[in-house]
Amino acid sequence: MTEPKTVKKVVLAYSGGLDTSVILKWLQTTYNCEIVTFTADLGQGEELEPARKKAELLGVKPDNIYVDDLREEFVRDYVFPMFRANTVYEGQYLLGTSIARPLIAKRQIEILRATGADAVCHGATGKGNDQVRFELSYYALEPDVTVIAPWREWDLTSRTKLIEFAEMHQIPISKDKRGEAPFSVDANLLHSSSEGKVLEDPSLAAPEDVHMRTIAPEDAPDEPTLMSIDFEKGDAVGIDGEALSPAEILTRLNALGKANGIGRLDLVENRFVGMKSRGVYETPGGTILLVAHRAIESITLDRGAAHLKDELMPRYAELIYNGFWFSPEREMLQAAIDLSQNDVSGRVRLKLYKGNVIVIGRESPNSLYDQELVTFEDGAVAYDHHDAAGFIKLNALRLRTLAARKRRNG
């Protein structure tokens, strides 16, 4: 254990669970400092008032307990900008955990400034990506802040030691926390992720009880669900013709996705810290939104802009995954992505069926699709078939030159 720094007041990202409750008491005993707790409602589906009561029980002053509903900000300012880029990491992962971390870190820094605190603390472990995401965000927003990462400092290296510490300091422990958790869970309005323990062997199928956001596709209704999503400038603004707020849209899409078995992913990913990790993710609403967004872009985006976006997306996804949301390069890419969305407005009609999201129609006042141009019937005046011959010959020129050289050289 390293020698603790001198701090007076710490803003702790606090869930109210065993780990962060132990961290809270450990901060008090190790640093002898005042604690400010911050609990974020990101749509994880849990009652958060118990976290407030538990913080009070552990000696935190009522004025130092923050429980904030950030659902609308989360979807509006983080999830939606990310989805404008059709962002997926390593071809599959919709970044549900990654995108939540910069918002939590930003709010911690805001509370630090409001309360005069001089340090922030998170509960991420020393092996994962979240420690990187939290701390890069802290330093980007408050470069001289002191960061406390207990899992890299203390000697409470097992579940048994955590429980012993909790019992020693009279921290309430729920019965299900006394044994080893079968897997760890992170959840917010965009997704749920499960990792560790029974999921660590990637050759074994995940138990069905790992899934908490979706029913199994084979158990979904035999009749498809028909729906539509309205877009304005790349963001979803309504479902089935009803205008909704960003968080309301994602909540509604989650319910539709859950009922139709949509959004399950079993992934072995490459962590930023250098190891591979197996995770089971559920992103029901996000999976629907991604398909719909690509569909409305298909008729409103120019080919060059669409292809450039697809080239930029893996780099953009990697920046978010690695924790660089507040970096200048992410902001530069975001500016380009947002500019591309100016005309991405219209309606997409979808069929949801047993784990599948199927596009059945798309329309937009800004559509670039011209039926006159693509029709096999006579009547197109903007396209002369004879022009194709010269176009092909010009594009074939270098290929013909290469072929001639090969023939000369035998």
How would you portray this structure in words?
The chain has 12 helices and 14 strands. The protein has 410 residues and is of the alpha/beta class. The chain folds into 2 domains: 9-74 and 98-180, HUPs (Rossmann fold), CATH 3.40.50.620; 185-301 and 343-363, Argininosuccinate synthetase, chain A, domain 2 (Alpha-Beta Complex). Strands 3-2-1-4-5 form a 5-stranded parallel β-sheet, sandwiched between helices. Strands 10-9-8-13-14 form a 5-stranded antiparallel β-sheet. Strands 6-7-12-11 form a 4-stranded antiparallel β-sheet, with no helix packed on it. Strand 13 and strand 14 (356-363) form a beta hairpin. Helix 3 packs across helix 7 (246-259), helix 4 (101-115) packs across helix 5 (130-141) and helix 9 runs antiparallel to helix 10. The chain is elongated and about 85 Å long. The mean pLDDT is 94.
- Distance from first to last alpha carbon: 71 Å
**Could you say how many structural domains there are in total?**
2
Main beta-sheet annotation = 5 strands, parallel
Strand content bin:
15-25%
Question: What is the name of the CATH superfamily of the largest domain?
Answer: HUPs
Order of strands in the sheet with most strands: 3-2-1-4-5
* Level-1 CATH class name of the largest domain: Alpha Beta
DSSP, total strands: 14
The structural class is: alpha/beta
**Rounded mean pLDDT score:** 94
Helix and strand string, N-terminal first? EHEHEHHEHEHEEEEEHEEHHHEEHH
Please name the CATH topology of the largest domain. Rossmann fold
Radius of gyration: 25 Å
Helical content (DSSP H or I, runs of 4+):
40-55%
Low-confidence stretches: none
Q: Label the overall shape.
A: elongated
- Helix count equals 12
What's the CATH architecture of the largest domain? 3-Layer(aba) Sandwich
